[in-house]
Amino acid sequence: MENKIKEEVLKLKKEKDFVIIAHNYQIGDIQDVADFVGDSLELSRVIKDIDKKNVIFAGVRFMAETAKILSPEKNIILPVPTAGCEMADMVELEKVKKLKEENKNAKTVCYVNTTALVKSICDICCTSANAVKVVNSLKEKEIIFLPDKNLASFVRRSTDKKIIAYEGFCYVHNQFNILDVKRAREKYPKATLMIHPEAPEDVQLLSDVILSTGGMVKYPKESKNNQFIVGTEEGMIYRLQKLYPDKKFFPLRGKPKAICNNMKKITLKDILLALRGEGGESIFVEESIRLKALKSIEKMIEIL
Ligand code: 13P
Ligand code: SF4
């Protein structure tokens, strides 16, 4: 059945001149039919170079919104409209305004995991791949960083600036703990432990490398090791195993699995329905908000 849907998706994608892009956390079947799979930074950049008007974005809402902000002329379709990001949804506008009021000399850096509206009231955007570089590029000594407190602590350790963190977190990564690390290290003593910076600080400090999902894609190629413990969402294992069939990848946590329920809302059937014009949502961002949010994304892209 799945194979039949896959064939139909590939056929329709070609006939209707669509492009499918997918985040690293999408299920294997979706990664297989995508034209491009990547981390949130790669996906936001690739969108500009795509010469097709119609894009199915297999990811969560803030990612599809970022794509629309950068390429308003494109029809960006989120196959499941309720696929949001719980961390992005934690940000309360009033709290951000209050932080800005209380710290008038600070610049505000927002993680790409935020709504278009939040991006529109921040100075510059960042992703987990470039957060340190973005913060260090600013001349101000005080930085309001939102929404992820764990990514903020990673940045704090890599800069001499004062980081004022919003108290948000990702429920998928924030559940990793020291016991998970201990168990995984015992089970796979030779493996390199790769951790996403959305994991809690104590877990980050026990890792061998701290990487965005894009960083995790590149790292095994350069590493002499052929075993890796993967401290991020489960979908990453499929991506890595497909890229490096001769290396082995183990999840940091076996049970309960580290799964982003929002990412996993999207099925192959949803992609098919979106291609047929029978499902999904064409993303809309109000123009005055888009222009302000664009500034903060463009500032990030400028310094890369
Ligand atoms: P990346 O930027 O590393 O792809 O992370 C996005 C994300 O949502 C992690 O939970
Ligand atoms: Fe958001 Fe966490 Fe899911 Fe990433 S894994 S999309 S941060 S809820």
TrEMBL record:
Report whether Magnesium shows up as a keyword of the record. no
EC number(s) per UniProt?
A: 2.5.1.72
| Biological process (GO), any one | 'de novo' NAD+ biosynthetic process from L-aspartate
Q: Which cofactor does it need?
A: [4Fe-4S] cluster
Please give one Gene Ontology molecular function term for this protein: 4 iron, 4 sulfur cluster binding
What pathway is this protein said to act in by its record? Cofactor biosynthesis; NAD(+) biosynthesis; quinolinate from iminoaspartate: step 1/1
Question: Which enzyme class, named as a word?
Answer: transferase
Tagged with keyword DNA-binding: no
Q: Which InterPro entries match?
A: NadA, NadA_sf
Per UniProt, the keywords (alphabetical) are:
4Fe-4S, Iron, Iron-sulfur, Metal-binding, Pyridine nucleotide biosynthesis, Transferase
Q: Which Pfam families match?
A: NadA
Designated name of the protein? Quinolinate synthase
What organism does the UniProt record list as the source? candidate division TA06 bacterium 34_109
In the record, what lineage is assigned to the organism producing the protein? Bacteria, Bacteria division TA06
